[in-house]
Amino acid sequence: MRNKTATKKFYLDDLNFTEIADYGDYLLLRKDDIEIHFFEFKELDPKTNYGQVYIRTNNIDEWYQTLLEKKVLIHPNAPLQVKPWGQKEFSLLDPDHNLLTFGQSL
User: Fold this and answer.
1) What letters, b where the CB count within 10 A reaches 16 and e where it falls short, cover 1-29?
2) Which parts of the chain are coiled coil (predicted)?
3) Which domains does the chain have, with CATH numbers?
């Protein structure tokens, strides 16, 4: 994360995560059984960031609709769709362009 305030706002307000701990340059967040750890990296260039996380869920349609209602930007190349590998998925980018893909098995 480049900016802890922006990261917290996005994950807490937009994605409904909760804060586990904040150790200054290290941040721990949770949603359900998912826990994500962030470390401060002020020099990170979002345009070259290739960080990505795949999060499995059992309520993909409801979660997608919730994000649309909150006006969270879905990645333009990754709206909710069924994939050939048997998953229903969508993706979005966090403030530092970490790719978050949410998927549910069919």
Assistant:
1) bbeeeebbebbeebbebeeeeeeeeebeb
2) none
3) 4-105 (3.10.180.10)
Q: How far is CA 74 from CA 41, 90, 106, in A?
A: 24, 7, 21
- Strands 99-105 and 52-56 turn out to be parallel
Q: Which strand ranges, in their side-by-side order, compose the sheet holding 81-82? A: 52-56, 99-105, 87-93, 81-82
User: pLDDT tens, position by position, for the chain (106 residues)?
Assistant: 999 999 999 999 999 999 999 999 999 999 999 999 999 999 999 999 999 999 999 999 999 999 999 999 999 999 999 999 999 999 999 999 999 999 999 9
Residue 87 Cα to chain centre, angstroms = 17
The pTM score is 0.92
Distance CA(16)–CA(59), nearest Å, equals 15
